[in-house]
Amino acid sequence: MEEYQPPRGRVLGLLALAAALGVLVFSLLLWFQLRTVRPLDPADYPETLPDFTFSANCTQVGNHLELTGRMGVRGEWYTSFDGRIVLYLAKTDTYWMVPTAMDEQAAFDSELVEKTWGESYGGFEARLPLSALDADSSQYELCVAWRSNGHNALVHTGQMLEVE
Fold it and tell me: Are the C-beta atoms of residues 54 and 69 closer than 8 Å to each other?
């Protein structure tokens, strides 16, 4: 029977380096996936929402556009919140989903949203690089891919992307 020999320091160092590189690669892939503007298939969102309310402001910060605002179905409390900003280019009939995050601190607009919403829900922030736009920004309509409270709708807001 052979005696146990502990692994050499070099082997442990290489294993630690491989693990660190694996974590780094995974983190970069996740970051890229969460920050990339991706095409959207409108067939994935068959429902319509007549009571949907939406308000957004767009500003240019360096080489990015930042959108902030509020969205939701009038009078509904949220049991879940999954709203994504979508840019629609009618010229090519294409939809682009923009990385969107819920923003609980967005300013509350009492004229847009009734107080039944609650003041800390429905806010969003979205950011996209100018290089992701195939046409002038004013040609894109702001839409919302809405999968909250059991809804599954692609909402055309009628609001064009206007940079302030």
Answer: yes
